[in-house]
Amino acid sequence: MAGKDKTRKTPRAGLNSSVVFGSRIARLIFASNLAGLAILIIGAMVLNEMRAGFVVSKKQDLVAQAQIFTSLLGDDATTPQPALDVDAARQTIVRLNLPERVRARIYLPDGEMVGDSFYLSERVDVDALPPLREPGRVARWGRNLSEWAAHVFGPVMPRRSSDAVRTQTFEEEFDTAVEGGEAASQRFNDRGQRIISVSMPIQRVSAVVGVLTLESSDIDEIIRAERAALLPFIGVAVLVAFITSVLLTLGIARPLRRLAVAADRIRAGASERIDVPALSSRKDEIGDLATSMEGMTEALIERIQANEQFAADVAHELKNPLTSIRSAIETLESVKENPELTEKLRGVIALDVKRLDRLITDISNASRLEAEMTRVPNEQIDIARFVKDVVGTYESLALDEGAVTVSFHDATMGGRLLVQGREGPLGQVIRNLIDNARSFSPPGAVVEVTLDQTNDGPQTIARIKVEDTGPGIPPDKLETIFSRFYTDRPKGTAFGNNSGLGLSIVKQIIATHRGKVWAENRDGGGARFCVDLPAI
C-alpha cells in the first residue's frame, strides 16, 4: 500500500543512548539529585574534621594541665614514706582555680576518692549539681545517628579523634594510671554528659601515691554548636533539592503532560495530529519522544486515510463486475430465443465472476499481508540464496512448449549479502514481479532476474532486477502502475486474470523493509523493475 513520501525527523537516540550517562535527562537527574547529597556530605566531613581537631586539642590541653597539676601534687601533697597528704592535696585542688567545665578528682591507689573539685570549689551551687538522670530522647537519637554515620562513613571520615581518644570505662583508665601510665578516654559521666577524661599518676620519686583525673564536660555544647553549624548546609541542600525538583517538573513532567493531553485530544477526536513544535525542537529524549509521537500520529492518520481510500477503491472495483453481471442477467431474460446471444451473455457473466473471484482473492491477500507484516518478526536473509530459491519454483515452466521461462543471475560475484526482513512478504514481491513480467512477455521469452550490489553513501544495497521483453511501459505511467487497481493490459490478454493490486502490494512490502522500488524501460525494449533493499 503506497503511502505519502515524507521526510521525517529521525530521533537521535539509538541503542547506545540507552546507556545511563549517554542521556542528557539522565545526567540532569543524577546531577540534581546528587547535588544536595554532596553538600550534606561535604558539610558533614568538614564538621567532622572540626570535631576531630577539637577533641584532640581538648585532650592535649587536659594532658598538659594534668602534667602540671600532678607535678604540683607530687611536690606539695606527698610525704617521704612515700604517701599522699590528703589535706594538702585538697588544698592544692582549691588553689588550682579550675575552669567551670573542668572537674578534678584525686584517688588513692586503692581507688578511694579523697578530693573532688566540684565539692571543694566555692562555685558549687544547685545548678552545678543536678540530679542523676538518663540521657534524653534527642540525645539518644543523636548518639544513635552518630554511631550509624560513623559505621557508614567511617572508611572516608577522618579518624584522628577515635585514634587519639579511645572510648573506655573509668576503671580501665584508672588501672592504667595506677600502674604509672597516662590514660585518656571518651565516655558519659554519671550526669549523662559526654566527657573527655585524662588520668595521670601522682608520684613521689618513682612510687605512685595517687591518681589525678581531669574531666572536661563541654563536649555536648560543642556538638550542639556543630549541629547548629550544619543547619545552613541542610538549608542549602533543601533549597537545591527544591530548585532541582522545580526544574525537573518544568523540564520533564510538564512536557510529558503536554504530550499526554495532545494524545488524549487525538483519541477523543478533537484533533488530528500532535502539535507540540516547542517540544520537537528540544535536543534531548523529550524532543525525540515528541518527534516520534508526531511521526506515529501522522503515520496512523495516513494509514486510516489509506484504508478509507482502499475501501472506496474496493467498492468501486467490485461494483463494476457486479453491474456488468446484473446487466447481462437482465438482457438474458429478453433474448432467450437467440441462442448465440444467450451464450455470449453467459460468457460475459462467467468472465465477470472470474474477475470478482480474482479481486476478492487479491484483496484478501493484501489485507492478510498487512496484518502479517506487523506480527511476523524480521530475520536475517541471505538474499542471493533466497532469490535463487524463489526463481527455482519456476523451473517446471521450461517443460512447457512456448512457455515464458525465468532465469537467475548473481552479479555479486559470490558476495554474501544479508537483508533484514520477512521471507513471506519478500517472496511475494519477487513472485509478483516475475508474474507481471511473464504476463507481458511473448511466448517462449525469458524473464531475467538479476541480483546486484551497489551503495547508497555508506549503506550497502542489495538490488534485485526483473527484466522482460514485452512492449514496455508508457513513460507517463512509470509511477501510476504502482497505484491500486491500476491495469493497462495489452490487447489479447485474458480478461479477469489481473486485479491491479500486484504492484501496489510490492511497493507496500518494500516500503516496510526500508527499501524502494521503481520501473524503467530497457534500451532494447521491454520493462525493468528494480528493488533496492538495505543490506546488513
From TrEMBL:
Gene3D superfamilies attached to this UniProt entry: 1.10.287.130, 6.10.340.10, Histidine kinase-like ATPase, C-terminal domain
Keyword tRNA-binding tagged: no
Keyword Nuclease among UniProt keywords: no
GO molecular function terms attached to this record: phosphorelay sensor kinase activity
UniProt cross-references to InterPro entries, sorted A to Z: HAMP_dom, HATPase_C_sf, HATPase_dom, His_kinase_dom, HisK_dim/P_dom, HisK_dim/P_sf, Sensor_TM1, Sig_transdc_His_kin-like_C
Cellular location(s): Membrane
Pfam families, per database record: HAMP, HATPase_c, HisKA, Sensor_TM1, Stimulus_sens_1
Boundaries of every HAMP domain copy: 250-305
Catalytic activity: ATP + protein L-histidine = ADP + protein N-phospho-L-histidine
A cellular-component GO term for this protein: membrane
Histidine kinase domain sequence ranges: 313-536
Keywords recorded for this protein, A-Z: Kinase, Membrane, Phosphoprotein, Transferase, Transmembrane, Transmembrane helix, Two-component regulatory system
Protein EC: 2.7.13.3
PANTHER family documented for this protein: SENSOR HISTIDINE KINASE TRCS (PTHR45436:SF5), SENSOR HISTIDINE KINASE YKOH (PTHR45436)
Name recorded for this polypeptide: histidine kinase
Species name: Hyphomonas jannaschiana VP2
